[in-house]
Write a structure and sequence with these properties.
The complex is a heterodimer of chains A (about 110) and B (about 120). Chain A is built from no helices and twelve strands. With about 110 residues, chain A is mainly β. In chain A, strands 2, 5, 6, 10, 11 and 12 form a six-stranded mixed β-sheet that branches. Chain A has a four-stranded antiparallel β-sheet with strand order 3-9-8-7, with no helix packed on it. A two-stranded antiparallel sheet of chain A has the order 1-4. The chains are: A mainly beta (about 110), B mainly beta (about 120).
């Protein structure tokens, strides 16, 4: 079956540091890949997505590249801000399926 | 354009009771999915409705059920509540096509506490 594995958190960084959150996946088809962000007390917001191999999704300074050869979709940001503190979820939507499969989430804490 | 609206935001129920949660999707969206979020199990898919029909179902007991109305609004019901049903229940709406590119938009969730 489908699965998503994310690095354990929390990840604690100082403001302006470089961020990487690792995500690898297993899928039976050719999935689309997503990163969602959840702020305290809120639902999920779509951060970025990629629908085929070598696609790069980007939004608000965050980037992730769909790497089929390594089945990965790592999230990166060059300079984090305190306002980026949240939980980040990697997810996939596989061929022929309508449900999203989520990773366990990675909590990011950015200190001033 | 209004987002996905879930009501109520918070609920406290007693074991054995039943509960109904409501979700109003984005205007024009015909698919509504429900997810359960807990610290232990993470985000798990409950079911998906499209045009008043359940199209997909996750691995949850029959105590969890749902329905969708002709205006695409959806409700989910949990009967005979257990302590382990305490969770954040999230609703997501999408256009409903089978396109992998179709985005899902989430509501703020309903926080259910079973005591």
């Amino acid at each position: 079956g489908d699965s998503v594995t994310q690095m354990e958190g929390p990840v604690t960084l100082s403001e302006e540091a470089f961020l990487t959150i690792n995500c690898t996946y297993t899928a039976t088809g050719y999935p689309s890949l997503f990163w969602y962000v959840q702020y305290p007390g809120e639902g999920l917001q779509l951060l970025l997505k990629a629908t085929k191999a070598d696609d790069k999704g980007s939004n608000k300074g965050f980037e992730a590249t769909y790497r089929k050869e390594t089945t990965s979709f790592h999230l990166e940001k060059g300079s984090v801000q305190v306002s980026d503190s949240a939980v980040y979820f990697c997810a996939l939507k596989d061929t022929g399926r309508r449900a999203l499969t989520f990773g366990s989430g990675t909590r990011l804490q950015v200190q001033p | 354009k209004a987002g996905v609206t879930q009501t109520p935001r918070y609920l406290i129920k007693t074991r054995g009771q039943q509960v109904t949660l409501s979700c109003s999707p984005i205007s024009g969206h015909r698919s509504v999915s429900w997810y359960q979020q807990t610290p232990g199990q993470g985000l798990q898919f409950l079911f998906e409705y499209f045009s008043e029909t359940q199209r997909n179902k996750g691995n949850f007991p029959g105590r969890f059920s749902g329905r969708q109305f002709s205006n695409s609004r959806s409700e989910m019901n949990v009967s005979t509540l257990e302590l382990g049903d305490s969770a954040l229940y999230l609703c997501a709406s999408s256009l409903g096509s089978n396109d992998l590119n179709t985005e899902a938009f989430f509501g703020q969730g309903t926080r259910l506490t079973v005591v």
